[in-house]
Amino acid sequence: MPRANLKKIHERIVPPTASMGSIPCEDAEFIYDAVQKIRPDEALEIGVNSGVSSGFLLYALDDLGTHKTRRLVSYDIRATCEWNDKNKVGFCIPQIAPDHKSEFHLVTGAGRLSDAKALMRGGRRLFFIDGNHHHPSATLDLLEISELLQKGDAVILHDTNLPNIYDGKWMEYAALYLFEALGGEKVLTSHPSKNIGYWIFDGNVEALYKSIKHCLEEIPFQLKTMRRCYGAVRYLNLLRDRIGT
Fold first, then answer.
1. pTM for the whole structure
2. Which of 41, 151, 193, 197 is paired with 126 by a 20 to 30 Å CA distance?
3. Closest CA to 158 of 192, 132, 136
């Protein structure tokens, strides 16, 4: 399943209007290249919608080889697509990876991210964050998965440049603020959109803790997320307790 097939696969997604808001082909290529470089044993995706990114994650995981079973766990707060509630979340996955060999779990429903995390078993991990784009949603997503992060794991952030493309239609800063705040090794797409990138966790828990606190305490929120913010205190304390370990 060579990389050259990605464009053809992306073009056959039907109907295109139903997968509105999904990743464009150039971002699918970035995801594929990231998976080939990082070579994760398992991946956790937050934000599924039509499932285009999920399908390409499975495609890329399969292309790592069959000597071990890899795993994708995908989570979405909704059970139906944001743009068309007649379609179930993830409906495009069979169009992209109909015969995937990697293990796949789809978890939907508000408050069920913990169920998705419980399906992760260990090894090198890749996380893909593409949920709500209003700050501080991406930061809260990263905080909630931080207990799973180990040195060498990677986090892909989508919509890292959303306010500066599409003629300013989407002034949503969640991924942009977080990507800028994270220190260490970061790789941004070479595509002119600059709208996807990944960060490698170097094991510095204290630096991660400070980056998350900066996003939550020093940058004004675009979204009222008080319920999640109350829960964030627990995860911040867990992260702080890991400093120096």
1. 0.93
2. 193
3. 132
Token pair for residue 107?
């978890």
Other beta carbons within 10 Å of 86? 8
The answer, yes or no, to whether the previous bond of 16 is cis (omega within 30 of 0) is: no
In a structure prediction context, what are the per-residue pLDDT tens digits for the chain, which is 245 residues long?
577 788 888 887 765 555 566 899 999 999 999 999 999 999 999 999 999 999 999 999 999 987 688 999 999 999 999 888 888 999 999 999 999 999 999 999 988 999 999 999 999 999 999 999 999 999 999 999 999 999 999 999 999 999 999 777 778 999 999 999 999 999 999 999 999 999 999 999 999 999 999 999 899 888 766 556 666 777 888 888 888 75
Structure tokens at 184: 């260490």
